[in-house]
Amino acid sequence: MFNSDQRAQILRKKIIKDNVYLLARIGGAGQDPGERKILSDYFRYKDYVDDQKWMNSSEKEKWSRDFLGLDESGFKITEFQNPTYAAAYRLKRNLSEFTKVFTMQVAGCNYLCNYCFVPRELNSGSEKYGRFFSAEEIVDDFLRIENESKTPMNIIRISGGECMIIPEIIINVYAEMMKRSPESYLWVDTNLSTIEIIREHREKLKNVLSQKNVGVVGCFKGTVKEDFSLISGAEEKLFKQQFEVAKILIDLGADLYSYIPAYVYEEKFAEEKLESFLSELQKVNKNLPLRLEMLKIEDFPAAKINFELAEKEGRAVPKTSQKLVFDLWYNKLLAKYYPEEELKKFCCEVEL
Protein backbone atom coordinates (compact mmCIF):
# COMPACT_ATOMS: atom_id res chain seq x y z
CA MET A 1 0.00 0.00 0.00
CA PHE A 2 1.20 3.55 -0.70
CA ASN A 3 1.17 6.94 1.01
CA SER A 4 -1.50 8.92 -0.83
CA ASP A 5 -0.25 12.27 0.56
CA GLN A 6 3.16 11.73 -1.02
CA ARG A 7 1.50 10.57 -4.22
CA ALA A 8 -0.57 13.78 -4.31
CA GLN A 9 2.54 15.96 -4.07
CA ILE A 10 4.18 14.09 -6.97
CA LEU A 11 1.06 14.48 -9.11
CA ARG A 12 0.68 18.15 -8.19
CA LYS A 13 3.97 18.96 -9.92
CA LYS A 14 2.66 17.34 -13.10
CA ILE A 15 -0.87 18.72 -13.37
CA ILE A 16 -0.51 22.44 -12.65
CA LYS A 17 1.70 24.89 -14.50
CA ASP A 18 1.42 28.70 -14.42
CA ASN A 19 -2.36 28.83 -13.90
CA VAL A 20 -3.19 26.07 -16.36
CA TYR A 21 -4.49 22.67 -15.28
CA LEU A 22 -4.17 19.22 -16.82
CA LEU A 23 -7.58 17.75 -17.67
CA ALA A 24 -8.09 14.13 -18.69
CA ARG A 25 -8.92 13.32 -22.30
CA ILE A 26 -12.15 11.43 -21.61
CA GLY A 27 -13.29 10.96 -25.20
CA GLY A 28 -12.91 7.29 -26.15
CA ALA A 29 -11.88 6.29 -22.63
CA GLY A 30 -14.66 3.74 -22.05
CA GLN A 31 -16.28 5.64 -19.20
CA ASP A 32 -19.83 4.47 -19.75
CA PRO A 33 -22.41 5.95 -19.47
CA GLY A 34 -20.50 9.21 -19.87
CA GLU A 35 -19.10 7.88 -23.14
CA ARG A 36 -22.51 8.47 -24.71
CA LYS A 37 -22.50 12.05 -23.51
CA ILE A 38 -19.16 13.40 -24.64
CA LEU A 39 -19.22 17.09 -25.54
CA SER A 40 -15.59 17.16 -26.66
CA ASP A 41 -12.49 15.13 -25.84
CA TYR A 42 -12.25 16.91 -22.50
CA PHE A 43 -15.80 17.67 -21.40
CA ARG A 44 -18.95 15.62 -20.95
CA TYR A 45 -22.33 16.10 -19.36
CA LYS A 46 -24.13 14.04 -16.77
CA ASP A 47 -27.88 13.88 -16.22
CA TYR A 48 -28.03 13.63 -12.46
CA VAL A 49 -31.74 12.85 -12.52
CA ASP A 50 -33.10 11.41 -15.75
CA ASP A 51 -35.91 9.17 -14.48
CA GLN A 52 -38.96 9.66 -16.71
CA LYS A 53 -41.44 9.70 -13.83
CA TRP A 54 -39.37 12.38 -12.11
CA MET A 55 -39.08 14.44 -15.30
CA ASN A 56 -42.86 14.35 -15.81
CA SER A 57 -43.67 15.34 -12.21
CA SER A 58 -44.50 18.82 -10.97
CA GLU A 59 -41.96 20.80 -8.94
CA LYS A 60 -43.93 20.09 -5.77
CA GLU A 61 -44.06 16.36 -6.52
CA LYS A 62 -40.31 16.25 -7.14
CA TRP A 63 -39.78 17.41 -3.56
CA SER A 64 -42.09 14.73 -2.17
CA ARG A 65 -41.22 11.57 -0.24
CA ASP A 66 -42.05 9.63 -3.43
CA PHE A 67 -38.49 10.19 -4.66
CA LEU A 68 -36.72 9.24 -1.44
CA GLY A 69 -35.76 5.82 -0.13
CA LEU A 70 -35.21 2.56 -1.98
CA ASP A 71 -37.08 1.22 -5.00
CA GLU A 72 -38.42 -2.30 -5.53
CA SER A 73 -34.98 -3.52 -6.64
CA GLY A 74 -33.45 -2.41 -3.33
CA PHE A 75 -31.50 0.57 -4.63
CA LYS A 76 -32.11 4.33 -4.53
CA ILE A 77 -35.30 5.68 -6.14
CA THR A 78 -33.36 8.82 -7.06
CA GLU A 79 -29.81 7.58 -7.57
CA PHE A 80 -28.19 11.00 -7.10
CA GLN A 81 -29.94 13.79 -5.21
CA ASN A 82 -26.98 16.09 -5.70
CA PRO A 83 -25.98 18.44 -7.16
CA THR A 84 -29.48 18.88 -8.65
CA TYR A 85 -31.32 19.21 -5.36
CA ALA A 86 -28.49 21.04 -3.59
CA ALA A 87 -28.32 23.74 -6.29
CA ALA A 88 -32.08 24.25 -6.52
CA TYR A 89 -32.47 24.37 -2.74
CA ARG A 90 -29.60 26.77 -2.13
CA LEU A 91 -30.43 29.11 -5.02
CA LYS A 92 -34.23 28.80 -4.64
CA ARG A 93 -34.77 27.85 -8.28
CA ASN A 94 -36.50 24.98 -10.08
CA LEU A 95 -34.94 21.52 -10.04
CA SER A 96 -35.27 21.20 -13.82
CA GLU A 97 -32.64 23.94 -14.21
CA PHE A 98 -29.98 21.75 -12.60
CA THR A 99 -30.27 18.22 -13.96
CA LYS A 100 -27.70 18.56 -16.76
CA VAL A 101 -24.15 19.05 -15.46
CA PHE A 102 -21.08 20.17 -17.42
CA THR A 103 -18.21 17.96 -16.20
CA MET A 104 -14.43 17.86 -16.48
CA GLN A 105 -11.89 15.51 -14.87
CA VAL A 106 -8.58 16.59 -13.37
CA ALA A 107 -5.94 14.22 -14.79
CA GLY A 108 -4.45 12.95 -11.55
CA CYS A 109 -5.56 10.96 -8.52
CA ASN A 110 -3.64 9.97 -5.43
CA TYR A 111 -5.78 6.83 -4.96
CA LEU A 112 -6.05 3.67 -7.09
CA CYS A 113 -9.59 2.66 -6.17
CA ASN A 114 -10.45 -0.89 -7.15
CA TYR A 115 -13.90 0.11 -8.44
CA CYS A 116 -12.97 3.32 -10.30
CA PHE A 117 -14.61 3.83 -13.69
CA VAL A 118 -11.73 6.09 -14.81
CA PRO A 119 -8.85 4.32 -16.60
CA ARG A 120 -5.68 4.49 -14.50
CA GLU A 121 -3.69 6.19 -17.25
CA LEU A 122 -6.11 9.14 -17.18
CA ASN A 123 -5.30 9.64 -13.49
CA SER A 124 -1.53 9.34 -13.90
CA GLY A 125 -0.76 13.03 -14.51
CA SER A 126 0.59 12.23 -17.98
CA GLU A 127 0.23 14.82 -20.73
CA LYS A 128 -0.09 11.89 -23.12
CA TYR A 129 -3.64 11.42 -21.81
CA GLY A 130 -4.64 15.03 -21.25
CA ARG A 131 -4.26 18.71 -22.07
CA PHE A 132 -3.65 21.86 -20.09
CA PHE A 133 -6.52 24.37 -19.82
CA SER A 134 -6.79 27.76 -18.17
CA ALA A 135 -9.86 28.69 -16.13
CA GLU A 136 -10.85 31.06 -18.95
CA GLU A 137 -10.73 28.23 -21.51
CA ILE A 138 -12.81 25.96 -19.28
CA VAL A 139 -15.52 28.60 -18.87
CA ASP A 140 -15.33 29.36 -22.61
CA ASP A 141 -16.24 25.74 -23.31
CA PHE A 142 -18.97 25.74 -20.67
CA LEU A 143 -20.62 28.85 -22.10
CA ARG A 144 -20.38 27.57 -25.66
CA ILE A 145 -21.91 24.21 -24.77
CA GLU A 146 -24.53 25.80 -22.52
CA ASN A 147 -25.57 28.02 -25.43
CA GLU A 148 -25.85 24.99 -27.75
CA SER A 149 -27.75 22.85 -25.23
CA LYS A 150 -31.45 22.21 -25.82
CA THR A 151 -32.04 21.83 -22.08
CA PRO A 152 -30.72 23.99 -19.23
CA MET A 153 -27.10 23.48 -18.21
CA ASN A 154 -26.29 25.58 -15.17
CA ILE A 155 -23.74 23.54 -13.23
CA ILE A 156 -19.99 23.31 -13.68
CA ARG A 157 -18.63 20.17 -12.03
CA ILE A 158 -14.92 19.77 -11.28
CA SER A 159 -14.23 16.08 -10.82
CA GLY A 160 -11.37 13.71 -11.38
CA GLY A 161 -9.07 12.31 -10.57
CA GLU A 162 -8.77 14.44 -7.45
CA CYS A 163 -9.19 18.19 -7.88
CA MET A 164 -8.03 19.05 -4.35
CA ILE A 165 -4.50 18.13 -5.45
CA ILE A 166 -4.72 21.46 -7.30
CA PRO A 167 -7.28 23.61 -5.42
CA GLU A 168 -6.28 26.52 -7.64
CA ILE A 169 -8.53 25.10 -10.35
CA ILE A 170 -11.53 25.44 -8.02
CA ILE A 171 -10.59 28.96 -6.98
CA ASN A 172 -9.90 30.24 -10.49
CA VAL A 173 -12.78 28.51 -12.29
CA TYR A 174 -15.17 29.93 -9.69
CA ALA A 175 -13.76 33.45 -10.15
CA GLU A 176 -14.13 33.15 -13.93
CA MET A 177 -17.64 31.71 -13.61
CA MET A 178 -18.70 34.62 -11.40
CA LYS A 179 -17.38 37.13 -13.93
CA ARG A 180 -19.14 35.56 -16.91
CA SER A 181 -21.96 33.37 -15.62
CA PRO A 182 -22.78 34.39 -12.03
CA GLU A 183 -26.15 32.62 -12.07
CA SER A 184 -24.39 29.25 -12.42
CA TYR A 185 -23.48 26.77 -9.70
CA LEU A 186 -20.13 25.07 -9.01
CA TRP A 187 -19.99 21.45 -7.83
CA VAL A 188 -16.73 20.00 -6.51
CA ASP A 189 -15.89 16.30 -6.09
CA THR A 190 -13.18 15.25 -3.66
CA ASN A 191 -11.83 12.04 -2.14
CA LEU A 192 -11.22 13.77 1.21
CA SER A 193 -7.44 13.44 1.18
CA THR A 194 -4.71 16.06 0.47
CA ILE A 195 -5.09 17.58 3.95
CA GLU A 196 -1.85 19.59 3.81
CA ILE A 197 -2.63 21.05 0.37
CA ILE A 198 -6.09 22.08 1.59
CA ARG A 199 -4.60 23.73 4.68
CA GLU A 200 -2.10 25.57 2.48
CA HIS A 201 -4.94 27.08 0.42
CA ARG A 202 -7.37 27.39 3.33
CA GLU A 203 -8.29 31.10 3.10
CA LYS A 204 -8.79 31.19 -0.67
CA LEU A 205 -10.80 27.97 -0.53
CA LYS A 206 -12.96 29.42 2.23
CA ASN A 207 -13.81 32.41 0.03
CA VAL A 208 -15.17 30.00 -2.60
CA LEU A 209 -16.58 27.04 -0.69
CA SER A 210 -18.65 29.21 1.65
CA GLN A 211 -20.64 30.72 -1.23
CA LYS A 212 -24.29 29.79 -1.81
CA ASN A 213 -23.68 28.71 -5.39
CA VAL A 214 -21.03 26.14 -4.47
CA GLY A 215 -21.44 22.57 -3.24
CA VAL A 216 -18.89 19.92 -2.30
CA VAL A 217 -19.21 16.14 -2.15
CA GLY A 218 -16.61 14.02 -0.41
CA CYS A 219 -16.34 10.36 -1.34
CA PHE A 220 -15.33 8.09 1.54
CA LYS A 221 -13.49 4.93 0.49
CA GLY A 222 -14.56 2.31 3.00
CA THR A 223 -16.24 1.90 6.37
CA VAL A 224 -13.17 0.83 8.36
CA LYS A 225 -9.42 1.28 7.88
CA GLU A 226 -8.87 -2.22 6.47
CA ASP A 227 -11.60 -1.81 3.84
CA PHE A 228 -10.39 1.72 3.06
CA SER A 229 -6.91 0.40 2.25
CA LEU A 230 -8.20 -2.46 0.10
CA ILE A 231 -10.49 -0.15 -1.86
CA SER A 232 -8.17 2.86 -2.33
CA GLY A 233 -4.74 1.21 -2.27
CA ALA A 234 -3.62 3.76 0.35
CA GLU A 235 -2.12 3.00 3.74
CA GLU A 236 -4.56 2.17 6.54
CA LYS A 237 -3.28 5.05 8.68
CA LEU A 238 -4.82 7.51 6.18
CA PHE A 239 -8.37 6.28 6.83
CA LYS A 240 -8.94 8.81 9.63
CA GLN A 241 -7.74 11.65 7.43
CA GLN A 242 -10.99 11.48 5.46
CA PHE A 243 -12.96 12.58 8.52
CA GLU A 244 -10.43 15.30 9.37
CA VAL A 245 -10.76 16.74 5.86
CA ALA A 246 -14.56 16.60 6.05
CA LYS A 247 -14.42 18.59 9.30
CA ILE A 248 -12.06 21.16 7.76
CA LEU A 249 -14.38 21.62 4.76
CA ILE A 250 -17.40 22.16 7.01
CA ASP A 251 -15.38 24.63 9.10
CA LEU A 252 -14.55 26.50 5.87
CA GLY A 253 -18.30 26.92 5.31
CA ALA A 254 -18.70 24.30 2.60
CA ASP A 255 -22.15 22.91 1.87
CA LEU A 256 -20.79 19.39 2.26
CA TYR A 257 -22.36 16.12 1.15
CA SER A 258 -20.80 12.68 1.03
CA TYR A 259 -20.79 9.42 -0.94
CA ILE A 260 -19.49 5.96 -0.19
CA PRO A 261 -19.40 2.94 -2.50
CA ALA A 262 -21.67 0.13 -1.30
CA TYR A 263 -18.62 -2.05 -0.72
CA VAL A 264 -18.04 -3.85 2.58
CA TYR A 265 -15.69 -6.77 2.99
CA GLU A 266 -16.86 -9.82 4.98
CA GLU A 267 -20.64 -9.91 4.84
CA LYS A 268 -21.07 -11.17 8.41
CA PHE A 269 -19.44 -7.96 9.68
CA ALA A 270 -21.29 -5.62 7.29
CA GLU A 271 -23.69 -4.15 9.84
CA GLU A 272 -20.97 -3.72 12.45
CA LYS A 273 -18.70 -1.93 9.97
CA LEU A 274 -21.46 0.34 8.69
CA GLU A 275 -22.46 1.29 12.22
CA SER A 276 -18.84 2.06 13.08
CA PHE A 277 -18.63 4.26 9.99
CA LEU A 278 -21.85 6.06 10.92
CA SER A 279 -20.38 6.78 14.34
CA GLU A 280 -17.25 8.30 12.76
CA LEU A 281 -19.40 10.54 10.56
CA GLN A 282 -21.34 11.73 13.60
CA LYS A 283 -18.09 12.77 15.26
CA VAL A 284 -17.55 15.16 12.35
CA ASN A 285 -21.13 16.41 12.46
CA LYS A 286 -24.15 14.76 14.04
CA ASN A 287 -26.17 15.08 10.83
CA LEU A 288 -23.51 14.12 8.30
CA PRO A 289 -24.85 10.53 7.92
CA LEU A 290 -28.12 12.05 6.66
CA ARG A 291 -26.17 13.85 3.93
CA LEU A 292 -24.53 10.65 2.69
CA GLU A 293 -25.60 8.75 -0.42
CA MET A 294 -24.66 5.10 -0.85
CA LEU A 295 -23.29 4.49 -4.37
CA LYS A 296 -24.15 1.40 -6.37
CA ILE A 297 -21.02 0.39 -8.28
CA GLU A 298 -21.53 -0.64 -11.91
CA ASP A 299 -19.14 -2.65 -14.09
CA PHE A 300 -18.55 0.00 -16.75
CA PRO A 301 -15.90 -0.88 -19.38
CA ALA A 302 -12.99 0.93 -17.70
CA ALA A 303 -14.16 -0.22 -14.26
CA LYS A 304 -13.89 -3.86 -15.33
CA ILE A 305 -10.23 -3.29 -16.19
CA ASN A 306 -9.65 -1.67 -12.78
CA PHE A 307 -11.43 -4.59 -11.06
CA GLU A 308 -8.94 -6.97 -12.71
CA LEU A 309 -5.87 -4.83 -11.97
CA ALA A 310 -6.84 -4.52 -8.32
CA GLU A 311 -7.47 -8.26 -8.04
CA LYS A 312 -3.91 -8.95 -9.27
CA GLU A 313 -2.69 -6.58 -6.55
CA GLY A 314 -4.62 -8.47 -3.87
CA ARG A 315 -7.38 -5.85 -3.65
CA ALA A 316 -10.32 -7.58 -5.32
CA VAL A 317 -13.71 -5.94 -4.87
CA PRO A 318 -15.76 -7.47 -2.02
CA LYS A 319 -18.36 -10.15 -2.59
CA THR A 320 -20.87 -8.70 -0.11
CA SER A 321 -24.19 -7.89 -1.80
CA GLN A 322 -24.52 -4.18 -2.51
CA LYS A 323 -28.28 -4.56 -2.05
CA LEU A 324 -27.65 -5.80 1.50
CA VAL A 325 -25.46 -2.77 2.22
CA PHE A 326 -28.19 -0.41 0.98
CA ASP A 327 -30.78 -2.19 3.12
CA LEU A 328 -28.66 -2.04 6.26
CA TRP A 329 -27.83 1.63 5.82
CA TYR A 330 -31.18 3.06 4.75
CA ASN A 331 -33.67 0.73 6.40
CA LYS A 332 -31.92 -0.22 9.61
CA LEU A 333 -29.07 2.02 10.75
CA LEU A 334 -30.36 5.46 9.80
CA ALA A 335 -33.74 4.52 11.30
CA LYS A 336 -31.97 3.47 14.49
CA TYR A 337 -30.23 6.82 14.97
CA TYR A 338 -32.59 9.42 13.49
CA PRO A 339 -36.29 10.29 13.85
CA GLU A 340 -38.70 9.73 10.98
CA GLU A 341 -39.04 13.46 10.24
CA GLU A 342 -35.30 13.67 9.51
CA LEU A 343 -35.38 10.59 7.27
CA LYS A 344 -38.07 12.23 5.15
CA LYS A 345 -35.78 15.09 4.17
CA PHE A 346 -33.64 15.40 1.06
CA CYS A 347 -29.92 15.66 1.86
CA CYS A 348 -29.84 19.39 1.14
CA GLU A 349 -32.64 20.02 3.68
CA VAL A 350 -30.57 18.49 6.48
CA GLU A 351 -28.67 21.14 8.43
CA LEU A 352 -25.04 20.69 9.41
Describe this entry's structure for a reader.
There is one protein chain. This protein is α/β, with parallel strands linked by helices and about 350 residues long. The protein has a single domain (about 5-350), classed as TIM Barrel (Alpha-Beta Barrel), CATH 3.20.20. Helix content is about 40%, strand content about 15%. It has 14 helices and 10 strands. The chain has a 7-stranded mixed β-sheet with strand order 3-4-6-7-8-9-10, with helices on both faces. The two termini are about 35 Å apart. The model has no long low-confidence stretch (mean pLDDT about 95).
The CATH architecture can be named as Alpha-Beta Barrel
Number of helices: 14
Low-pLDDT runs of 5+ residues are: none
Might you state the CATH topology name? Answer: TIM Barrel
| DSSP, total strands | 10
How do the helices and strands line up, and which of them pair or pack?
Elements: H1 4-15, E1 16-17, E2 20-24, E3 44-47, H2 52-55, H3 59-62, H4 84-91, E4 100-105, E5 130-134, H5 135-148, E6 153-159, H6 168-180, E7 185-190, H7 195-200, H8 202-209, E8 214-219, H9 225-232, H10 241-251, E9 256-261, H11 270-284, E10 292-295, H12 301-312, H13 322-337, H14 340-343
Parallel strand pairs: 4-6, 6-7, 7-8, 8-9, 9-10
Antiparallel strand pairs: 1-2, 2-5, 3-4
Helix pairs in contact: 5-6, 6-8, 10-11, 11-13
